[in-house]
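Self-study notes.
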Amino acid sequence: MKPTISIQPLTHPNSEVDFGAEIRYADLENLSDEDFALIRDALYNHHVVVFKDQQSLSPRAQYELTKRFDPASDNYGHGKTLDAKRSILHPDLKTVPHQPQVQVIGNGFVEEYEGLQNVQLRHPHHRTFHRDHIPDEEDYDFTRFYRWHIDAALYDLNPPRVTTLMAVSVPKGRRQTLRYDDGSNETLDVPLGTTAFVSGQRMFDLLSPEDQEFVRTSRVEYAAHPYIWMSPARSLPTGLGLYTEDRELAESDLPPIDESKILTLPMLWKNPVSGKFALQVHPSAVRRIHRADGTVIDDLATVRETVYRLQRPAISPQYVYAHDWQEGDLVLFNNQGVLHSVVGAFKPDELRLFRQCNLAASEPPVGP
């Protein structure tokens, strides 16, 4: 007799993290409607759920699990229109040939995997995006959040509801000290190559009543072709947004812009199960803030400073869940309820091989 699905909240000693769960005994290759209903409920109540020992899970089943959260969706979350030479995302993505909604990411040389041949994977490193770098001689001992983000194209396509991440190969052993380097002296001990998560719900709850009203009644307009627009810009050391140095590309230097495809989204996104609100803003891609009274905050530096002030408290170490990846882990996260960041600096021979899947949502996120 097949065991019943078990859902166990994750424990976070010496931490104030209040999300995350492990799900056991789920047959993800042959998922019944009843079991999926339990998984969906767990995902929206816990935001990040972990399935252990999924080494044999096929890319097809990973795609089908992801799609089940939004059956009308089918396109990869960033679409097919990446400007290969200029988008900051391009070096990070390889597509599984027989399952094009699933991407391969990681670090190191892969001779063959799921139809891909002789692939050189590059783990994003903060020196390629941050203005100021950790010195090279400290690179393997210390690290940073690379870029806090939501998985989303933020132009033309709606943000995916969920993302699945599958650990195929994980380097063993080494840990790093993550530095905030923003004058706070905050640090966080992290596993090598962790994925860091913070709760958008906690981000909202930490705000003052005045700021809660501000985010409840305001909307964010994202830049057109944001990952090309921001490509010359440089990140703050926390990975939480960009310096304003007039480095962004002018509209005339971007691919053609269709004004109808520019996204203006609520700052708060409603959880479909709990009804609670999460502060969900991609800090690097914001361009304007639309106020309830019809006014628009248009000055880019002011927009970024405002978003940073709202988000920064919730990325302090006590609120960060840094997942300690083991081979066979499948992590499913609520992309409309958490922000996440790549972390870590790998040696060239440290192989990290992951599969990622998210699908552009069929509808925009629901605001207040």
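Second protein, same conventions, sequence then structure:
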Amino acid sequence: MHSDSNVQKTDEPDGDAPPPSDGVRFEKLRNGMAVLFASKTALVGLVLVMFWVGTALFAPYVTSYGPTDQDWKAPNQGPSWSHPLGTDELGRDLWSRLAYGARIVLVILPVTDSFWLPGGTALWGVFASLLFGATLGLLGGYRGGWIDEIIMRFLDAMMSVPIILLYLIIVAAIGASAVNVVLAIAIVGTPGVARLVRSLALDIRTRDYVRAAETRGESDVYIMFTEILPNAKGPIIIDAMLRVGYAIFAMGTLGFLGLGLPPPSPDWGSMVAKGREFILIGSPWAALWPSLAIASLVVGLNLLADGLREEAMRYQ
């Protein structure tokens, strides 16, 4: 008679098992890309997003001018061979300003005039909101009780303030700069992330592997960030894509209201605000192109997130 204990052991993860090989990692990557390309919606979104990512990365090579170079002989000009998208009121090339503006959104965070961090302003803002929101959501969802009640009531109070008004209050209080815009995006986005992570944690904390970790005597921090969070990453990643779009839209709104990046930074929202003054005199280009840039990038991120969510639901 054979014992069933050997069968049970084959189904349990081996703590001493070697890490996945390169072939396993490649297979997972290939399966992930197959899911992405299976959705036409996600594919269209990916093309739009990658266009702006590529433009941001290679801005110095796809433009003939710097973002602040001025052509005094050609202010408020329409598209031409020398200026493919036209110029603004100071004769600055609009394509160059769009490309370098994309760098600020997606590639670099200008901390000072001479120092910057890799990663765009919108990405840093969303990352900070994910960090704070996930921590609060895990703490409330896993621990529950009075801790959950205090966290949720505090976040409910934050969410009761209209989003645009909350952005204006924060940036007007601490000043307009790229770092302060990141801080504003993080503060505004934290409640939504926390509520999402909390709802996922409430479900995952009842799973067998969480109970097994508790039985082994693992700490709450270990369980929250090693057992619960990795198993909730799918919905969180999709939500993060949408939040990057919201952050870009928020940056444009703040720039339009004069609370974005200070001039002469090629802030898309500021470009729209200045360009709209010249629409009625027959020069709509300075307002049109940055508006289309914001719209196309936000729509691309939304399409990418929606397509991935639809495909993920099909494979569940």
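Instructor comment on the second fold: Strands lie at 108-110, 116-118.
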